[in-house]
Structure formats: C-alpha cells, structure tokens
C-alpha cells in the first residue's frame, strides 16, 4: 500500500498538477472545413471550387461556428464576377456574405453571452459564409432566436432589412399612405408588402410579363398586396386611373431600372421620391424632364452596406431581432428553396436563371 503524503504535500502536488495542466493545454482549434473558394474573378461556374480548409486555431476571444445555412444572393454573384464595389481579397476568397450557424466552440476569454448550440449570424454581414466552419472574433456574431426556420435566420439581414430601412429612411409614411414598387416578387419586394401591411401602408406592385405571372400575382395578393400590375397593363398615359380608392404613392422602390423604373415613376404623386436599390435589367433609369420641372420628383439611392458601415451595428441587430419576431408570428414570409451544400452547382444554376423565376437558393450545410 502506498504511503499517504502529509496534507501539505498533497495540496502542493494538486497545485503543481493544476498549473501543469493549464500551461501545456493546446489552444482550441476548429474542425476541418469545406469551403467554396475562388482565386480570380469570373463566371461562378468557371471560377468557384469546393476545397478542404485546415483547422483554425481559436484566439482568446474567437468563436467557432458550424454553419447551418447560407443564401446565394445576386450581390454574392456580383462579388465573384468582380463587378461589386466591395469584394474580398484574392486569391483564396470564400464566397457568401450572410448566413446562420451554431456556436461550436468558444475561445477561453470570450465575454459575449454565447454558449455552444446557440444560433448566431454575422452582424453586420461579413465575407466567407459559404463554408462549413467559421472562426471569427466574438464581436462579429449576433445571437438570434432558434425557433424560426433556419433559412429565415440565414437570409434576414440583406433583403428584409433593406425593405425595412427603405420604408423608414426616405419619406415619413402614415397609416393609409401608399408606396409603389417594381421587382415585387423578389424577397425585398415580398418583405416590403408585408412590412407595409403591418404598419397600415398600401402597396402598388409591378411585376414582369412572363409565364406564371398570374400565379405570382395571386401569391403577392395573399401576402397583403393591394394592387399588382403586369408591366403590359401600364402601357397607358394615365395609370393613376388604375388606383381606384388608393392614394397616389409618395414613395417608390426601383430594383430593375429601364422601362420598369419609368412605369413606377408614372404612379408617384407631386413631390414623390423614387429610391433605387438595384438594377437587375442593367438598363439606365431615364426620367422625362417634365417629371422634375412639373412634378418635382426626387431620385434617391440606397445601399444597405453603406448604411451598416455608418455606426449602425446595434441598430442593425435590434431590427434583425424585430424581423425574426415577425417571422415567428407568421407576419413575414417569402419564397426560398433549401438545397444541400453538396449540390452547389445546381443551386448556382438556379440562382443564375435568366428569367428570375426560381426562388431564393439557400444552401443547407
């Protein structure tokens, strides 16, 4: 039988063992990851590749997140093509800008109220969400509720937040007022309809003529749209006769450009404002001189990334929580398609569809 050590020596041995344990323990590392990478700009189907990424050491205040889902947004495609104003450095850029993940591991000095298993999103969004594990400083991550479908948490920042900000930032709207928009079937468009409805604002919506337009019109009506018009219906001089009892809109949202923007301008009342936040047709906005002189129309622009970079991080997170609350209450929904990460090529093919008829593609990891 081993001889027992005196109590003092037992305590000393425990202290030495404890010090030895902490001094030799390795820093935590992330699991190996798979990522969608590109080394040069170009067509996504030509420059993207899926590659293994080695484990990453966590700094004292880093958080390792296992990604659950991430969307393919038009701006993601533009970054890969090299035509977006802000792009990640090359080579070795990882695709994706928003998404949702689950906390996997924490650095030893993390102070944020995060625990393994929590759902988090990068807020403001940050480059590199198209990978299975991400390690970033704790300040990047915002904890979100996990009682909503993951695809909503993955897509809440870029599109619904754009809709919310545009409704609040340009014209003071009161219950009973109206807005007009083109690109109404987009996620921003669907979000505008529902957020406006929550606040008692009427919406006039313009969609393209294409197969399935009647079905799209019915879906928008179900979301709360007051009026939905195909572009061909607006080939007339006085479109305001179509409004019936609805007031002339003071505010319009343009994400298409070209003829679709000209049709939107027809609806605006005296002193109205059109906000452009996209240019999907790649055609310029052309405005008759008379709209400026006799109607005093204002043209504005909105870019969410600029807004988020102007010390709005806390505001951004508060509004994300508000939007996910609406999702939880069933007051905000939009069409998406979850597709496995292993079918990236199919997801890209659908996202790049020229007719724009496919729902938002969200990769599930």
Automatic annotation (TrEMBL):
UniProt cross-references to SMART domains, sorted A to Z: PKS_ER
Catalytic activity: a 2,3-saturated acyl-[ACP] + NADP(+) = a (2E)-enoyl-[ACP] + NADPH + H(+)
Keywords: Fatty acid biosynthesis, Fatty acid metabolism, Lipid biosynthesis, Lipid metabolism, Mitochondrion, NADP, Oxidoreductase, Transit peptide
InterPro entries: ADH-like_C, ADH-like_N, ER, GroES-like_sf, Mito_Enoyl-ACP_Reductase, NAD(P)-bd_dom_sf
Annotated ranges, domain Enoyl reductase (ER): 42-363
Cellular compartments per GO CC: mitochondrion
Transmembrane intervals: none
Molecular functions (GO terms): enoyl-[acyl-carrier-protein] reductase (NADPH) activity
Location(s), subcellular: Mitochondrion
SUPFAM superfamilies the UniProt entry points to: GroES-like, NAD(P)-binding Rossmann-fold domains
EC primary class: oxidoreductase
Tree of life domain: Eukaryota
Subunit organization: Homodimer.
PANTHER family in UniProt: ENOYL-[ACYL-CARRIER-PROTEIN] REDUCTASE, MITOCHONDRIAL
The protein, known as: Enoyl-[acyl-carrier-protein] reductase, mitochondrial
Native source species: Panicum hallii var. hallii
Phylogenetic classification of the source organism: Eukaryota, Viridiplantae, Streptophyta, Embryophyta, Tracheophyta
């Amino acid at each position: 039988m081993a001889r027992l050590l005196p109590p003092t020596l037992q305590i000393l041995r425990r202290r030495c063992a404890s010090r030895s344990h902490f001094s030799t323990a390795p820093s935590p590392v992330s699991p190996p990851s798979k990522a969608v990478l590109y080394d040069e700009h170009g067509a996504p189907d030509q420059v993207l590749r899926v590659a293994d990424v080695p484990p990453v050491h966590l700094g004292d205040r880093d958080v390792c997140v296992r990604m659950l889902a991430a969307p393919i947004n038009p701006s993601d495609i533009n970054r890969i093509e090299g035509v977006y104003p802000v792009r990640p450095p090359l080579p070795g850029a990882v695709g994706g800008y928003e998404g949702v993940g689950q906390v996997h591991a924490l650095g030893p000095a993390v102070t944020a109220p995060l625990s393994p298993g929590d759902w988090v999103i990068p807020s403001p969004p940050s480059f590199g969400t198209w990978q299975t594990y991400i390690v970033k400083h704790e300040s990047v991550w915002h904890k979100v509720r996990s009682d909503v479908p993951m695809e909503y948490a993955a897509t809440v920042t870029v599109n619904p937040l754009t809709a919310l900000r545009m409704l609040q930032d340009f014209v003071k709207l009161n219950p009973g007022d109206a807005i007009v928009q083109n690109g109404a079937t987009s996620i921003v468009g669907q979000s505008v309809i529902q957020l406006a409805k929550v606040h008692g604002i009427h919406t006039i919506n313009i969609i393209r003529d294409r197969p399935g337009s009647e079905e799209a019109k019915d879906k928008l009506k179900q979301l709360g749209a007051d009026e939905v018009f195909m572009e061909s219906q607006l080939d007339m001089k006085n479109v305001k006769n179509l409004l019936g009892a609805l007031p002339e809109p003071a505010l319009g949202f343009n994400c298409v450009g070209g003829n679709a923007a000209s049709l939107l301008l027809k609806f605006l009342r005296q002193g109205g404002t059109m906000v452009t936040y996209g240019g999907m047709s790649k055609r310029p906005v052309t405005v008759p001189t008379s709209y400026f002189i006799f109607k005093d129309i204002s043209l504005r622009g909105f870019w969410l990334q600029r807004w988020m970079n102007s010390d709005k991080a806390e505001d951004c997170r508060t509004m994300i929580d508000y939007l996910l609350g609406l999702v939880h209450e069933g007051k905000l929904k939009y069409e998406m398609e979850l597709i496995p990460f292993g079918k990236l090529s199919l997801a890209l093919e659908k996202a790049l569809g020229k007719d724009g008829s496919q729902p938002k593609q969200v990769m599930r990891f």
